[in-house]
Amino acid sequence: MGEPTEALMDRCKRADKEAFREIVERHQEYAFALAFRILCEGEEAKDVVQESFMRVWIHRADYRAEMKFTTWLYRIVVNLCYDLLRAKQRRERIFLRAGENMGALVEADRHDPEELEENRDLAERIRRFAKGLPERQRIVFALRDLQDQTVEEVAAIVGISASAVRANLCYARAAIRMKLQEQKKE
Amino acid sequence: MRCNSARRLMLLYREGELPPARAAALTEHYASCAACARSAQLIVGEFAPLDALRRRLPVLDNPRAVTMKIMRGIEATLRPGAPFELWGRRIDRLLSLARFTIGAAAAAMVLLYMSLSYNDALTVASLERRLTDRQRDDSGTAEQLAREATNLLGSRNAGTYAESGIRPGDVGRVLEHLVRPGQQFARVTVEDFLLRKYPGLASVTLQDGLDDRERAVLADEGERFLKDLEKLIRKEKGIHER
Question: What is the pTM of this model?
């Protein structure tokens, strides 16, 4: 691995595009994996990645090297995912009332034909585990159990205390364990 | 370490939540206790689908294209005058959100008006006929006419207004002041509905854009307003179908 990301960020502050390109190339796949595991939608996750890096560039002057770059980036990704999940829930709350037809539309949207077969299968599996989990538990689960972040990193990314992360994880894991046992019985 | 403690800690161990010293003691225990080692294996098996999921990374289709798109985005911010454009884009985004909100609110109000006015039109037609008759006979004062209107409108719409939180009496009190032959009762009723139940929403003016207060009002009352509207429409549908 070449120059550390934090040093590249210093160059970005001086409007160095090449440094920024390197940061994007280095982190976009991992950022995508996080967004995908939270949203379970390939295209939406891609949009989140693009928007996240745009925000990194726009707010590059605010970045402080004391924080790991990935923590800062993931915080942006998670916040954008939060916004998207909430907007989706609001939309579904309002429009699903309008009738079954809209429900079918939402369902159709979930199975984007453009999405890679591999991703579709993966999204389906994550959905099966994370279904019914509240937003925060779902995000904490994705960060800790799927992205392998430490509890402290998750706390810094989500902006809650480490004990709150542990509590959320505990509930999420209990729910997921039940689902695993149900699946085993089937 | 005893077997009891080992079994209690197995799950935490699998989840990577044990401090290193305790994790080491547990692995040591597994080496010397076949029963616990078997239980640990069972737990590992139970979580196998989740572990498989962790190992599978979603595929970012065409990462080079994503990088290019991001770089094009930042190029735009480096052009002279770009900061202004950026703010312009942000303002545009806010405006489009405001336009959507205004559109939704306006559509909701039109729907509410239509849903009430159809029902009220029937009432108003018969009310007007009776009021005209009464006036022609010159046998009632304005108060009597208003009371008549109240009873008629109140009983006809009791079901509808009970749902929306407006009592027939409330409608009547407004009408006592406003009733005249040929008056648009439906309009009065809708405005009254908004003013009474959603004073904040009624004060939102849609023509000149939204300020912070109006945006807060929409966020606060908009959802409840839509819920009421939905109830009214459902109720109205029921009335029409009957």
Answer: 0.55
